[in-house]
Write a structure and sequence with these properties.
The protein is α/β, with parallel strands linked by helices and 322 residues long. It is built from nine helices and twelve strands. It has two domains: 109 residues, Nucleotidyltransferase, domain 5 (2-Layer Sandwich), CATH 3.30.420.40; 166 residues, ATPase, nucleotide binding domain (Nucleotidyltransferase, domain 5). α5 crosses α7. The two termini are 28 Å apart.
Length: 322
């Protein structure tokens, strides 16, 4: 069958991954380059072009009908530009235009990395079968995306559902985004570790002061480490409950490095959610770990490309979709 694949790019501050993905979400071909994140913009773009070029050498490439990009943000899908915080050489960089050229003219769909993870979880992961979902990544930052009415809802610029920058503490610490008390400022891995150290937690003999080390200490019963995770869980619960109240989601899926802490995070999160999600239409909200793992960005970018094609087909056929 021709045109039965899509290409996908997952662009972050550490790596640029690419893949050819079939209509069932199976990755058939991979390519990857390190992200030269501190170099000038054209150097970063050459790494992207190298990934696309490697994919294009595959015998599967002629079957690709579109290309999806999940990029660190902010992104602006309406303009086709990206300004990743962790790639300073890209500010309003015309990524879509450049990738269209590099791919030989394939239609390109751009979304933020949080939205990409959401698309992956809805297609292949824990949000599968749910029409209304919030999916989050809790790692060095906190991002997210929404599925509403059974469809990915990226918003006009591709950033809808960015729960990390909902303020949950009006007098809280300043956030790099310019606001105060954001979910990310409390619940990201580095901020969990920062708070634990500030409050008196001491790393072990190896000097590891990461969130994973704090999680290990919390599991072993350290009260300061446990309190830092409980504070993070409270911030996440407040943000999830606010989102659920606003748009009536049925499930919140949480992935990323901090989610690998397991019940150190999820037990206090579910407990705190009962305190915030109090209205009748949000009390049944389910919170669960993500399932798609390290390929989530690629799978989600592929899903976005496929979904864009379906939306365009609906318009051409005179239907609106649901």
């Amino acid at each position: 069958m021709q045109n039965d694949l899509v290409a996908a790019l997952d662009i972050g501050g550490t790596k640029i991954a690419g893949a050819l993905v079939d209509l069932h979400g199976r990755i058939l071909v991979r390519a990857q380059r390190p992200t030269p994140a501190q170099e000038e913009g054209e150097t970063v773009m050459r790494a992207v072009e190298a990934v696309v070029a490697e994919l294009s050498t595959s015998s599967y490439w002629p079957r690709a009908r579109a290309l999806g990009i999940g990029s660190a943000g902010p992104v602006d899908a309406s303009k086709g530009t990206v300004s990743p915080v962790n790639v300073p050489g890209w500010r309003d960089f015309p990524l879509v235009e450049r990738v269209v050229a590099a791919s030989g003219g394939l239609p390109v769909e751009l979304i933020g990395d949080g939205v990409a993870i959401t698309a992956a979880e809805h297609w292949q992961g824990a949000a599968q079968g749910y029409d209304n979902a919030l999916c989050m990544v809790v790692s060095t930052g906190v991002g997210g995306g929404l599925v509403l009415g059974g469809r990915l809802h990226p918003g006009p610029t591709g950033n809808a559902g960015h729960i990390g920058h909902i303020s949950v503490d009006l007098d809280g610490d300043p956030c790099p985004c310019g606001a105060r008390g954001c979910v990310e400022r409390i619940a990201s891995g580095p901020n969990i570790a920062r708070r634990a150290v500030r409050d008196g937690w001491c790393p072990g003999p190896d000097g590891d002061s990461s969130a994973a080390a704090v999680a290990a200490a919390a599991r072993a019963g350290d009260p300061v480490a446990r309190a830092s995770f409980e504070r993070a869980a409270q911030a996440l619960a407040a943000g999830i409950a606010a989102t659920a109240t606003l748009v009536e989601i049925d499930i919140a899926v949480i992935g990323g490095g901090v989610a690998k802490s397991g019940e150190v995070l999820f037990t206090p999160l579910r407990r705190a959610l009962r305190d915030y999600a109090t209205l009748s239409f949000v009390r049944a909200l389910t919170v669960t770990p993500a399932l798609t793992g390290t390929d989530a960005g690629l799978i989600g970018a592929a899903a976005a490309a496929l979904g864009a094609g379906e939306r365009k087909r609906d318009v051409l056929l005179g239907g609106g979709g649901s």
